[in-house]
Write a structure and sequence with these properties.
The protein is built from 9 helices and 8 strands. By secondary structure, it is of the alpha/beta class. It has one domain (6-229): Rossmann fold (3-Layer(aba) Sandwich). Strand 5 and strand 6 (124-126) form a beta hairpin.
Length: 230
């Protein structure tokens, strides 16, 4: 275990660190003794990146950052630290400098775009009765219900926060595309992946929640990145 880098997992919108549960167990079973999962406030890209960087800086040794969904924007903004040796994107945003997740989504809207609903406090939710169809159609209904009820809504303004200095221009990258993603258009994922010139791109017949529906495949990609990047 000692020679493996620490894997730091970064969640996205509408879910917390627990969304990584199945992937965590897969990685643990493969000998990853040092695993961390950031719990981001989802209040702004700057604050989420700061929280992620604080966790990375607590690690004595190499780190592979793994971001799902909006978590990809977070690792893009936060990932240029000396001990970060690789970035893995799981059905994730990978904005360039001056781009935001909202801008990318508006250019090619995902199928579930209309199922997002703002509340009176400025938070943006996935409608509970549309969550299963929108976010995780390849999971069992019981699991989708729990995800829908426990979803962690971001401040809607976070969608418009621009990346300033993308770490993927400096660090090795890997990318997983979800071909049935209804939260980020699959063609947007492919475009973002291809322009990074990653070490590897894989496509899964998966929903946006591939980290939960395809944990073995996701762990395979993280494991490959960890072995190549260290």
């Amino acid at each position: 275990m000692a020679d493996k880098p620490t894997v730091v997992l970064v969640h996205g919108f509408w879910g917390g660190a627990a969304h990584w549960g199945k992937t965590i167990l897969e990685l643990r079973n493969r000998g990853y003794g040092s695993l961390r999962a950031v719990e981001n406030p989802l209040t702004s890209l700057a604050e989420d990146a700061e929280r992620t960087q604080k966790m990375v800086k607590q690690v004595d040794g190499p780190v592979v950052l793994v971001g799902h969904s909006y978590g990809g924007a977070v690792i893009t903004e936060a990932g240029d630290l000396p001990n970060v040796v690789g970035l893995v994107y799981i059905a994730a945003f990978a904005p360039d400098a001056g781009e935001s997740p909202g801008q990318i989504s508006q250019e090619l809207p995902p199928a579930a775009f209309e199922n997002l609903a703002p509340d009176s406090d400025g938070y943006l939710w996935v409608k509970q009765d549309k969550f299963h169809w929108s976010f995780c159609q390849d999971l069992q209904d019981d699991e989708a219900v729990v995800m829908a009820i426990t979803q962690k809504a971001p401040l809607a303004s976070t969608f418009g926060d621009n990346v300033t200095d993308p770490a993927w221009r400096k660090k090795p990258t890997w990318y997983q595309v979800s071909t049935n993603d209804r939260m980020i258009h699959p063609d947007n994922e492919r475009r973002m992946a291809e322009r990074m010139s990653p070490r590897k791109i894989i496509e899964l017949d998966a929903s946006h929640a591939s980290l939960a529906s395809h944990p073995r495949d996701v762990a395979d990609l993280v494991d490959e990145a960890a072995n190549e990047a260290r």
